[in-house]
Write a structure and sequence with these properties.
Structural class: alpha+beta
Bound molecules: zinc ion
CATH topology of the largest domain: Aminopeptidase
Strand content: 25-35%
CATH superfamily of the largest domain: Zn peptidases
CATH class of the largest domain: Alpha Beta
CATH architecture of the largest domain: 3-Layer(aba) Sandwich
Number of domains: 2
Number of strands: 17
Length: about 400
């Protein structure tokens, strides 16, 4: 029996409270930075398990289990829900109007609690330090930053490696990993451009921000088509363009909201520079009376998995789950703020994807070519991971990944 078998031997008897915890969290979702009840629940459980528990970054909770000599492993789960009205019809559907765990963070919390419990109960099987981080406000890219700003690096032992997972619309019972970029860097940008207002009948008295903003939207399209190297990944989306109130008034300003995704920091820097250059250039061409304003918000760092860590964890997954359950992850265009935590410590990390869809439903959708129509993705009001075996898998992935680093005892 190897260490992960010894630690996981108790899993079946933990599934009862784990299911209860998951459905309880699902029923009572809390928005970003408001995870008060969730963090209280996490604190209570970790304390019961024998962890030393610290609050970091408001609603952030860290449990530390020091178990002799050996490496330190940090594992992170995010806790926040989304402003989505649940439409799943599940018996444990959200009881909070307009708020839903539509991204599976309730599953991440439950799975990490399960791993924390199993590791605490089998201290004879391993040695080292296990650090369970429960992070607020992933959805707005603010939680890992709040924890780092609140002194995470000084309050917690330095880990050798950091781990995290995300439930995704893939078959339950499977896990996907990749080295290199797995999630994109994400930036939101509010641009305000200034014109000169006038009567709609007197365009010659104006600097028209409607025309200026339109021209900016079109010119921004050339960043991907003409400036970014073919094969380099980048997305530039203008998600909102707001200006004006009335047909016969030329307004004096326009605002644009942009979303930018990249897999490479150099590409990101070049894309952001190109956006600012084009906007300034168009403003100058229009004769704008004032320089434009740029306000960055909801920023997510790149998640790029360390090759050696990923290989070690994937080897552990393949040995435990069998090679068929472990696939190569395709990089996602979604973003995450997890990497700020290992980056603050200066340690390598890996972030893997966990399947949450009933395998038969998934295979039928694949056979019919209707995956995108029939399988609700993250943030959908229909998003509903199947509890079995997703929850048990999520506990096992954390245990197996941690034990691929923690020292083993016979
Ligand atoms: Zn999300
Ligand atoms: Zn998420």
């Amino acid at each position: 029996m190897d260490s992960s078998d010894a630690v996981l031997a108790g899993l079946d008897s933990e599934l009862g409270w784990l299911r209860e915890t998951y459905t309880e969290l699902h029923r009572h979702p809390e928005l970003s930075l408001e995870e008060h009840e969730t963090s209280k629940l996490v604190e209570e459980k970790l304390t019961d398990f024998g962890y030393s528990v610290t609050r970091i970054g408001g609603t952030g909770v860290v449990g530390i289990l020091q178990n002799g000599e050996g490496p330190a492993v940090l594992a992170r789960a995010d806790m926040d829900a989304l402003p989505v009205t649940e439409a799943t019809g599940l018996s444990y559907a959200s009881a909070v109007d307009g708020v839903m765990h539509a991204c599976g963070h309730d599953l991440h919390v439950s799975a990490l609690l399960g791993a924390a419990k199993l590791l605490a109960d089998s201290r004879g099987a391993w040695s080292g330090t296990y650090i369970a981080v429960f992070q607020p406000a992933e959805e707005i890219g603010a939680g890992s930053k709040a924890m780092v700003d609140d002194g995470l690096v000084t309050k917690v032992p330095r880990p050798d490696v950091a781990l995290a997972q995300h439930v995704m619309p893939m078959p339950a019972g499977t896990v996907a990993t990749t080295d290199g970029p797995v999630l994109s860097a994400g930036d939101s940008l509010k641009i305000t451009v200034y014109g000169k207002g006038a009567h709609g009948s007197m365009p010659h008295m104006s600097v028209d921000p409607v025309v200026l903003a339109s021209s900016i939207v079109l010119r921004l399209q050339t960043i991907i088509s003409r400036e970014t190297k073919p094969g380099d990944f980048a997305v530039v989306t203008v998600g909102a363009l707001n200006t004006g109130t009335k047909s016969n008034i030329i307004p004096d300003r326009a605002t644009l909201l942009l979303n930018i995704r990249t897999y490479d920091n150099q590409v990101r820097t070049a894309v952001l520079a190109a956006i600012e250059r084009i906007v300034r250039g168009e403003c100058a061409a229009a004769g704008a009376p004032r320089e434009p304003d740029f306000e960055y918000y909801d920023q997510f760092p790149l998640t790029s998995n360390d090759a050696a860590v990923t290989k070690q964890v994937r080897t552990g997954f393949s040995a435990h789950f069998g090679p068929d359950a472990v696939s190569r992850a395709t990089p996602q265009t979604a973003s995450e703020d997890f990497s700020r935590i290992p980056d603050a410590f200066g340690v390598p990390y890996t972030f893997w994807l966990l399947g949450g869809v009933d395998p038969e439903t998934y295979q039928t959708a694949v056979a019919n070519g209707t995956v995108s129509r029939d399988i609700p993705g993250n943030h959908s009001p229909f998003f509903a991971p199947v509890i079995d075996p997703t929850l048990s898998m999520g506990v096992q992935t954390h245990v197996v990944a941690a034990l691929s680093y923690l020292a083993h005892k016979d």
